[in-house]
Design brief:
Layout (H helix, E strand, L loop, with lengths): L24 H23 L4 E2 L2 E2 L31 H5 L1 H8 L2 H10 L31 H21 L2 E3 L6 E3 L3 H17 L3 H8 L9 H15 L1 H23 L10
Helix pairs in contact: 1-4, 1-9, 3-5, 5-6, 6-9, 7-8
The structure holds FE2/S2 (inorganic) cluster.
The site of FE2/S2 (inorganic) cluster has 8 residues, from helix 4 and helix 7.
């Protein structure tokens, strides 16, 4: 009778690998882009200024629940806001899309490698020689809340789409009369919604939500179509994730620089 002997590979040192390729490039690029985005978004969220221009509203500040601009739903800064905390409309809403991205299945794989080096890449030695705990224990088990942030992200898509429609209506500050018009900013806001929709509608959890509740999907043609659409977007989820991340930051930057008078928003129509 043949017998087998387990062969244990010796533990690798941090960064040790037999891979001949430049495996470190991808985590390094991920680290640079994600860290830059977090720094910029945090800075922009605390500014409480230059987040509107004409009919445009920065996606970092939308929906503006309370605030000084004409986009605010419920008026200016509320009285209950703690005096020790600088007020900004973005602080009320930005945690929701932020947590949606933070708990995204794709981003998790990317930032576990880039920020925690756990492992830095496939078949590369880790800094911690511990056993694998996965996401079944605290704190990482909280990542499973992703599907709840998805529900909120879907609402945000509708709100941002409404912002893009509002970005076609220009009101004269003196006469108060409005007219239809399209500026470069209108196109920027529209592109931002398209990119965010491509990212959100390709969500792994949405795919399960749409297709996972019927035993025979082929008997439900509408649901099948939705499932196929989600699956198609999901195959390019990584690209949608990065494009929408850059897109949302650029949209804020565009409106900010126009509001500061540094960039000119050209009217097309
Ligand atoms: Fe990436 Fe849900 S898996 S957004």
């Amino acid at each position: 009778m043949a017998s087998t002997l387990p062969v244990l590979a010796p533990p690798r040192r941090f960064g040790q690998t037999a891979r001949p390729d430049a495996w470190w490039v991808q985590p390094a690029v991920t680290f640079t882009i994600l860290a830059s985005f977090v720094v910029y978004a945090t800075w922009a969220a605390f500014q409480n200024a230059h987040y509107t221009y004409g009919p445009y509203l920065s996606p970092f500040y939308s929906p503006e629940l309370f605030g000084a601009s004409h986009h605010a739903w419920f008026g200016p800064q509320p009285r209950w806001w703690p005096g020790w905390l600088p007020f900004s409309p973005a602080l009320l809403i930005l945690p929701f899309p932020g947590l949606f991205r933070f708990t995204c299945y794709y981003y998790r794989g990317a930032y576990y490698k880039a920020f925690w080096a756990d492992p830095p890449s496939c078949a590369v030695g880790e800094p911690r020689g511990k056993s694998y705990w996965g996401e079944r224990y605290l704190p990482l088990i909280l990542q499973n809340a992703h599907r709840f942030f998805l529900y909120i992200a879907l609402i945000f898509i509708f709100i941002l789409a409404y912002d893009a429609v509002k970005a076609t209506w220009w009101v004269d500050g003196i006469t108060g009369r409005g007219e239809f018009g399209i500026g470069v900013g209108t196109l920027v806001l529209t592109a931002n919604v398209i990119l965010l929709s491509g990212y959100t509608l390709g969500c792994h959890s949405l795919r399960h939500l749409v297709g996972g509740r019927k035993d025979q999907l082929s008997r439900h043609p509408v649901q099948l179509k939705c499932y196929e659409g989600c699956s198609k977007l999901n195959r390019g989820h990584m690209k949608w994730a990065w494009a929408s991340l850059v897109g949302v930051a650029f949209t804020d930057l565009y409106i900010r620089l126009c509001s500061m008078g540094i960039w000119t928003d050209w009217r097309i129509l």
